[in-house]
Write a structure and sequence with these properties.
Blueprint (H helix, E strand, L loop, with lengths): L13 H13 L13 H11 L7 H18 L51 H8 L20 E8 L2 E10 L7 E6 L4 E8 L6 H9 L10 H14 L8 E2 L4 E4 L10 E9 L2 H6 L5 E15 L15 H16 L6 H10 L1
Antiparallel strand pairs: 1-2, 2-8, 3-4, 4-5, 4-6, 7-8
């Protein structure tokens, strides 16, 4: 029986399948990934944190990721589906009619169903994806997420020297939140910086929606269509939390570092700068607003060897002249009381 030749991806392989399956099993709360969030934003996050070799190729990875996630949802594994040597399920229409030639065969072993050739895929995937398609699920729709707890702040990075230390400073423009809402850390053996953020409960609380809408509609209440829709979306976030747990952003913002740094952050601080905007100040009834900047300072593990004392240069006259001068001074000191001393120098001049 001919078997369809399967084409493996050039970069994605079974090791990556194993890694992705393990991430699905661990789940988002335990450092893995969520198999039910199939939004492009979340898949981008998975790529950044776990499969950086796919950065720049995200659009081609979306469908692959969704197929694998749905395979895991159905079977709790990425290796499920039709395996080698196992025919697909049969129904009455596909069973061949019994004939006299088949009378010697055991009735409990029907003839295997013919393999249906599938059209070639313009974008061939790896073995697990092809197996999943062969299991019978061919048409799938993209899930539409009703929320996203991801945060991505603008940032600057600059490297500099302090004595014999290489240093990195990272500046993030962040939300107007207390310092305790931010959790910076060094990861990947000192080659990566991560910033996790706690989202204020106000964002998913019903209070703000009621206040905002009752300003225009005094009859707005918990049974209003808008309120019901909000509770459904926000509930998907809060239902995943244990009692008392904070809402931590789904993604830790990741910055790749130019060189390895110490695992211990040297220092970090949250600074506020007055935002000079007359229109906003007037809107806030004279209360000046601030821009919040989170600054992190990291130190490289390698140190530059301390330099020895710099060489010095001194300028002197001729040492020969200095010696002659010393001799002359010595003679002068011996004959200092003799009036003929000057005559002796004159005689020397005559010679």
């Amino acid at each position: 029986m001919d078997k369809r030749k399967k084409t493996k991806g050039k970069t994605w392989n079974k090791l990556h399948d194993t890694q992705l399956e393990e991430l699905f099993k661990r789940g988002k709360k335990n450092g893995g990934v969520c198999s039910t969030d199939l939004s492009n934003n979340y898949i981008d996050q998975v790529i950044r944190e776990h499969f950086p070799f796919k950065i720049g190729k995200e659009s081609g990875f979306y469908q692959t990721y969704r197929r694998k996630a749905r395979a895991f949802q159905l079977n709790k594994t990425l290796s499920a589906g039709r395996r080698k040597g196992k025919p697909p399920p049969e129904d009455d229409e596909r069973k061949p009619a019994a004939t006299g030639d088949d009378s010697d065969e055991e009735p409990s072993e029907p003839a295997p169903a013919p393999v249906v050739e599938e059209p070639a895929d313009d974008n061939p995937q790896d073995d697990s994806t092809t197996t999943f398609i062969a299991s019978g699920i061919k048409k799938m729709t993209t899930d539409l997420s009703t929320n996203s707890m991801e945060i991505w702040f603008p940032w600057l990075m600059y490297t500099w020297m302090a004595g014999n230390e290489h240093r990195i400073t990272l500046d993030f423009i962040v939300l107007a939140l207390p310092e305790s809402f931010y959790r910076p850390s060094v990861a990947e053996g000192g080659n990566q910086f991560r910033l996790s953020t706690i989202i204020p409960e106000l964002f998913v609380g019903t209070g703000r929606v009621k206040m905002s809408n009752r300003q225009r509609d005094r009859k707005f209440n918990n049974r209003s269509a808008k309120m019901v829709a909000f509770n459904k979306s926000a509930g998907e976030v809060t239902d995943k939390l244990e009692r008392g747990d904070p809402i931590v952003a789904d993604n830790a913002q990741v910055v790749q570092l130019p060189f390895e740094v110490e695992s211990q952050i040297r220092r970090w601080k949250l600074e506020t700068f007055e935002f000079e905007n007359d229109e906003l100040t007037q809107l806030m009834e004279g209360v000046h607003q601030s821009v919040f900047i989170l600054t992190v300072e990291l130190v490289g593990v390698k140190r530059i060897a301390k330099k020895h004392s710099a060489g010095a240069m001194n300028r002197f006259g001729s040492p020969t002249r200095a010696e002659d001068s010393d001799d002359d001074n010595s003679d002068a000191s011996e004959d200092g009381d003799d009036d003929g001393g000057g005559g002796e120098r004159d005689n020397m001049d005559e010679h």
